[in-house]
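Batch 3, record 17
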Amino acid sequence: MVFHVKHSDYDVIVVGAGHAGTEAAHAAHRLGCRVGLVTFRKADLGVMSCNPAFGGLGKGHLVREIDALDGLMGVAADRAAIQYRLLNRRKGPAVQGPRVQADRALYHRAITALVKDTTIDVIQGEVVDLRLTESGAVRGVELADGSEISAEAVVLTTGTFLGGVIHIGSEQRAAGRVGQGASVRLAQRLRDLDLSIGRLKTGTPPRLSARSIAWDMLDRQEGDAKPIMMSFLHAAPFVRQVACGIAHTTEQTHHIIRANLDRSAMYGGQIDGIGPRYCPSIEDKVTRFADKTSHQVFLEPESLSSDVIYPNGISTSLPADIQVEYVQSIPGLEAAEILQPGYAIEYDFIDPRALSPTLELGEVSGLFLAGQINGTTGYEEAGAQGLVAGLNAAHLVQHTEKTIFSRADSYIGVMIDDLVTRGVTEPYRMFTSRAEYRLSLRADNADDRLTPKGLEIGCVGRDRQKAFDAKMRRLHDVQHLLDSRSFSSHELRAYDVAVSDDGRRRSGTDVLALPGTEPVALARALFPSLEALDEDIVQVWRNALYRQYEVRQQNEVAALRRAEAVSIPEEFDYALIGSLSNELRGKLERVRPVNIGQAERIEGMTPAALNAVWSAVKRHSAGISRTG
Amino acid sequence: MANETIFATATAPGKSGVAVIRLSGAQSWNVVERLAGDIPVARTASLRTLRGDDGEVLDEALVICFAERASFTGEEAAELQVHGSVAVIRAVLDAIGQTGLARPAAAGEFTRRALENDRLDLTQVQGLADIIDAETELQRTMAMRVMRGELSDRVLGWKATLLRATALIEATIDFADEDVPEDVSADVDALLAELETSFRAELAGSDRRERLRVGFDVAIIGEPNAGKSSLLNALAGSDVAIVTDRPGTTRDLIEKYININGLPINFIDTAGLRATTDPVERIGVTKAMARAETADLRVFLYDGLEQPNWPIAVEAEDIVLRSKSDLQPGADISARTGEGLDDLISTMSARLWQRDLGDGLIARKRDVELVAEAQALIGKVRGSGGPFDEIAAEELRRAARRLQAIIGGVEVEDVLGEIFSSFCIGK
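Prediction for the assembled complex:
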């Protein structure tokens, strides 16, 4: 038999150029891969289909983590940011989330520029099929025009395009975004694979014309006076900053919606998909929270250069005429002009329990999935998955060690573990409460946590490395100075520090960590020789604040690491463990946990069953080493 | 590699009318088939002749099969009710062993499997153990309430309250940019105050309930020859007393476990309380003294005219008696004639009974500690000034884990579910 050796067109092909796709393509590129990025329209790189904002609680953490690994989102978000707000300013730094309003046009421009700056080929076309080898490994894609592109690995980031259907009232059409088509044939192809596929839905509000809004009747929400950047590389906003408006729905609004519920796609029964509980449509809100007489509507400018306003809080699938009626019942919006009606969109997602923590699909070797196709919602969640899929696609091609994130090192790790272990029942969104180690997994220390890992992987460039190293040196110097001297309660009272007379001496760091201190002023008073930047002092203070809790969690983290160190072989046969209930065996076979730590988190796992798995795995590996 | 099938006699060893042999595990019905010839319909008592491998008749027995998920352990199981003779039981057990399908159960293994298969939670297992050990009516009623899940329900109730408080805090953290109330501290504090009150009520009397479970300590104190041993023997011999050897109770040589009027009492005979030079004996004496000091009640005996100087102080509840009334007119009690014995018993009962058991159900040290730890964590959150919200949430998570340890699930999804059901989240 003669083997015909043909070089692939690319190492990695990424299908879709949204937030997951661009991040995946760029990550694979950073690891030195030849990357082809296939998109419906070349002009659509990094399009923001939904709300014009990045970051927030949990999501801000994800952006910072992407940034710490030298990804695109943080950098592009800063270039496009027209309003900065750090959420939860009055709470501790662990749960503060940086958020920006981003100008759609500027964001798109930033992403396009960042991609253009690389060797990534942007290919316009619709991917309709996958090319597989006989053994079922992916070898490329087929486009609608019949052409084929070969690659060693493929990352699918289809967003809402996979089997996408848009609903406005009783009208519906196949589309992944307003004004565009859907990936119907590719969806069919995936349905032919042995995968569990479900439907999810999400919605958008009508877009309004800024000129038609009576702004002086509305409350205003300004950005922060001292903006906190999304990227660790930046220090100040790039463009002009703006304010948002806040409007309120009325009883009249609710009445209009209630009277027309039967005309809503969602309530008229046209949509089977499951929507998120945390991002309900206005129909949902007036129904489920019937006793609330008013809901807030945030009027967010979509761009400095356009007239479009995104009214956050009133997404809908009511018919267009009803949308006009209820929007105009809101004080301040009486004359509002709708530029584009709101709609609900339904799309396919693949049960993410079929994925490994590298986001590779177990069924098809070399095929990676990222973003909404995995049941998530949000730009940040998509971007973070794109990063993971892109890195691991590159590892596969280059035969290098996989990059797996842990619940103990990042929100990325928390999200991916949740997805591949527990699956989704509604569109998955990041929350800080999902991270059990959130006191240590902070947005402010994402670089400290992950940039070294990125350097090890090879996805962090020289500029970021230099900036990171310099910052760590500065923080180390501050910390060192603060720890060089300790203070008695008596001494501290001279500095107005309220401290009990317990005879203890406290290091400078411990003093800063006391509740209610002004860290910068206090540090400078205690250490007159301190010449550090304010932000560096604040960072040392943030680190000190949670130290005792981190120490306490170390045991838990150590136990997690131990359990994660026991890997379960891919071919492991759960049928060999007779004591497992059928239900649990089914779950284990579907999830195929890669280690005992993951197995432990499977819903319904009991200590006894985990023990049985653990010992069977130990016997299995012992057997292998004896015979092999 | 399957969970092995286990077997054991469920009834006490020795002669009896009927003895019950229990099997649990995937091979249980196969074992029944090998011994009885067929597998009777599940949950139906069926008379069968049990035979060994060689065909020899072992016994006529009532056989009951239980299907998986419909048995005590949750596994496939069976019970063989055989004649309670030592020889029959041994022959049947041997025959089961010889099938090669099952092995003898380890102590507590059936209950352990029930726990692992979620048939019982931890509190119910403890209630079950207490039911089995119950010797007095009060022990039985307390244990039955626990076994029937009353304690679990209570803990679940606390967890629900804690979940609500955590969800309120988490809502203000994770949905700060949403339409949620900004300050929930008053609501959180009310919930936590409610929990603290419940915890206090639960913990009150837990030491007494523990006593009720394992026995009250009553020390008999007196100088040599004051009549202590005679009194103890008389108490043990009276018609209200049952003297038992309780396996598992730590028993010093000088302790006697007696059930009087439904009260389990460990009598501590301090007969050995004397100055001694023997080092081993001295350790015993020191221990006995310590037990006497911390005993729930002390009976002081003297046979002279005056109360001597005892090495242990007399407290208000303690009983002081002049012994040997058969020899000394005017004395209180006589072990020999039984005079005053009934009075002593009723005084002791009354003093021990009147101790308030409280409204709680927790009667185990481990559970007491878990509730106390949860209470302390909640106290920290409620403390003046209060920590950052995320730290408060962390402490409450820890408290929830403590409570969870009593029964065995607060999950993130539970918290989110609570948030979404109470607030309209959706900017």
